[in-house]
Amino acid sequence: MTKLTDNHKQDLVRLCRGWRAEADLTAKQASKLLGISQRTYEGIEQGRGFTYPTLLSMAIETFKSKG
């Protein structure tokens, strides 16, 4: 596993916050759609990173394309 740099973490934060704002979702709704806990999702939005950022990004992009 490769450690995320601060820039990658911030990219993930922007992606998650932007998607959630565009889709008008709460953190609870977003986490449920992604299949992760609300606490984990909120941590991602706070910049704590995520073990599988590529998979998370792909999942969000899939939801965005369906919206």
Walk me through this protein's architecture.
With 67 residues, the protein is mainly alpha-helical. It has a single domain, classed as lambda repressor-like DNA-binding domains (434 Repressor (Amino-terminal Domain)). 72% of the residues lie in helices and 0% in strands. The chain is built from 4 helices and no strands. The longest helix has 18 residues.
Question: How do you describe this structure in short?
Answer:
The protein has helices at residues 6-23, 27-34, 38-45, 53-66.
CATH superfamily: lambda repressor-like DNA-binding domains
The count of helical stretches stands at: 4
Task: List segments where confidence is low: pLDDT < 50 over at least 5 consecutive residues.
Answer: none
Query: Biggest β-sheet, characterized?
Result: none
- What is the CA-CA span between the terminal residues? 31 Å
**Kindly state the mean pLDDT as a whole number?**
91
**What is the CATH architecture annotation?**
Orthogonal Bundle
Whole-number total of structural domains: 1
Structural class label = mainly alpha
The name of the CATH topology is: 434 Repressor (Amino-terminal Domain)
Quaternary organization: single chain
Note the overall shape: globular
Range of helix content: over 70%
Run of helices and strands: HHHH
